[in-house]
Write a structure and sequence with these properties.
Layout (H helix, E strand, L loop, with lengths): L4 H12 L9 E2 L4 E8 L8 E3 L5 E7 L8 E7 L11 H4 E3 L4 E2 L2 E4 L8 E7 L4 E3 L3 E8 L5 E10 L7 E7 L10 E9 L8 H4 E7 L2 E7 L5 E3 L2 E4 L6 E3 L5 E5 L9 E6 L4 E5 L18 E3 L7 H4 L2 E9 L6 E6 L12 E5 L4 E9 L1 E11 L4 E3 L11 E9 L8 E10 L3
Parallel strand pairs: 3-12, 22-24
Antiparallel strand pairs: 1-12, 2-4, 4-9, 5-7, 5-11, 6-10, 8-9, 11-12, 13-14, 14-18, 14-19, 15-16, 15-30, 17-18, 20-28, 21-22, 23-28, 24-27, 25-26, 25-28, 26-27, 28-29, 30-31
């Protein structure tokens, strides 16, 4: 019976994973590419801005070389990302929540691929969030069709926040220094009145900002008068995985980091990252855990002078797996869509795909979605306890009789095992 315990715990762990989908960015139009949402100019962090003192930048390209009038609407959401129905627009937005026009528009310059770049900052003179919590910004075209949905968060200022602490260990109830990492969390209420934590609080823990395997509302092991504590919580055991792969394309004529060679077919530029081989042993490699940054070799006018290239992804695999294989990162919005799926080549014994991508730095991983529709690590990518991962915790609070969930706690830590 003793030997069966890790297997039982692992089954419980897998069943406890709750896939949250509504909060991830969505690109709904085929002519839109390179959506990037960054808070406070920190491209490696979650899109979380502080109430009264934060800036969110939204950038995307329309793959035409002409102006389109795009408008946007802002709505407040609950902790589960369902639209808030208990508030008036004036309760959560200063200015106008609907019908605002994106005015920062520039055409690409000196690029082979023509496009038009759109930029929007929140808050601005027309629209400013008034309360903390989750927000969804939807961009519409002239026919009022949604083309983009952006999800971001506004948190309470530091002095009005709950204290959130995270610790990561490789000593788990599944194994010790094996393939898993255990997250421990400590929450202090601070000045908030919490009489019924199960109803008043909602918690979410993420690995590398990924929502597809986020854990929500895990039961704490300790309930105290001034806070909660999660120690060796089965729901907070994560598969460690491996370091993200990465490459950088900074120009259309020079191969840079992670690129084997580049080419030109008379119409498009092509970039060929090194073929991805099985990783049977752990090797530390500094990466951005799925984040990406648009840039070029001059790092000047990056949004309008960075060209597009056809990027060829190739993953060596001895045989077809029982499921679909995808390339995944922040730049795919953690969505498993057809354009990010790799096809198996029986002749080369490789998974392959081609994705048009803008110049910049990209980190990514290969994941599979099994026949049950659940994402998981590919066996040949390896899973090692030493893997450097980042973990994030979000805490939402609703006071007794309150009308909405407020984001009152947030923290992020990087786990590095040496």
């Amino acid at each position: 019976m003793k030997h069966k315990q890790p297997i039982v715990l692992l089954v419980v762990l897998l069943l406890s994973i709750q896939t949250l989908t509504a909060q991830r960015h969505e690109v709904l139009a085929t002519n839109i590419r390179s959506l990037q949402v960054v808070a406070n100019e920190d491209w490696q962090s979650m899109p979380i801005m502080e109430l009264e003192d934060g800036v969110l930048d939204i950038d995307f390209d329309d793959m035409t070389h002409e102006y389109h009038r795009y408008t946007y609407t802002l709505e407040h959401c609950e902790a589960n990302w369902q639209t808030t129905t208990t508030l008036f627009e004036s309760d959560y937005v200063e200015g106008f929540a609907k019908g605002n026009t994106i005015e920062d528009v520039e055409q690409s310059l000196l690029t082979n691929t023509l496009y038009t770049h759109y930029h929007l900052s929140i808050p601005n003179k027309k629209c400013r969030p008034k309360i903390s919590g989750n927000y969804r910004l939807t961009v519409y075209d002239a026919d009022e069709n949604p083309i983009i949905k952006v999800c971001f968060m506004v948190k309470e200022p530091f002095e009005r926040s709950m204290g959130v602490g995270l610790n990561v260990t490789t000593n788990t109830d599944v194994d010790i220094n094996g393939q898993f990492q255990q997250v421990e969390m400590d929450l202090k209420y601070g000045g908030y009145s919490v009489t019924n934590p199960e109803k008043q609080l909602k918690t979410i823990v993420l690995q590398n900002r990924r929502w597809d395997n986020a854990r929500s509302n895990a039961k704490p092991q300790y309930v105290m008068s001034d806070g909660l504590r999660w120690i060796h919580c089965p729901n907070y055991i994560f598969v460690a995985g491996n370091e993200y792969r990465k490459f950088e394309i900074l120009s259309t004529n020079v191969a840079t980091m992670g690129i084997d060679h580049i080419g030109w077919d008379g119409k498009d530029f092509h970039a060929y990252p090194y073929i991805a081989s099985p990783r049977l042993n752990y090797l530390y490699d500094q990466d951005a855990n799925g984040a990406f940054l648009i840039r070029n070799s001059d790092n000047r006018n990056i949004h309008t002078e960075s060209d597009y290239m056809q990027v060829h992804f190739v993953l060596e695999y001895p045989q077809r797996v029982a499921g679909d294989v995808y390339v995944n990162g922040d730049w795919t919005n953690d969505r498993f869509l057809p354009q990010y799926r790799l096809e198996y080549n029986e002749e080369t014994h490789c998974y392959e795909t081609v994705i048009p991508m803008k110049l910049g730095y990209y980190s990514y991983q290969y994941l599979m979605v099994d026949t049950d529709g659940k994402p998981k690590m590919l066996p040949i990518e390896g899973s090692f306890y030493q893997t450097e991962n980042s973990y994030q915790a979000l805490v939402y609070y609703r006071e007794q009789g309150g009308r909405t969930d407020r984001l009152v706690g947030y923290t992020s830590v990087n786990f590095t095992k040496r």
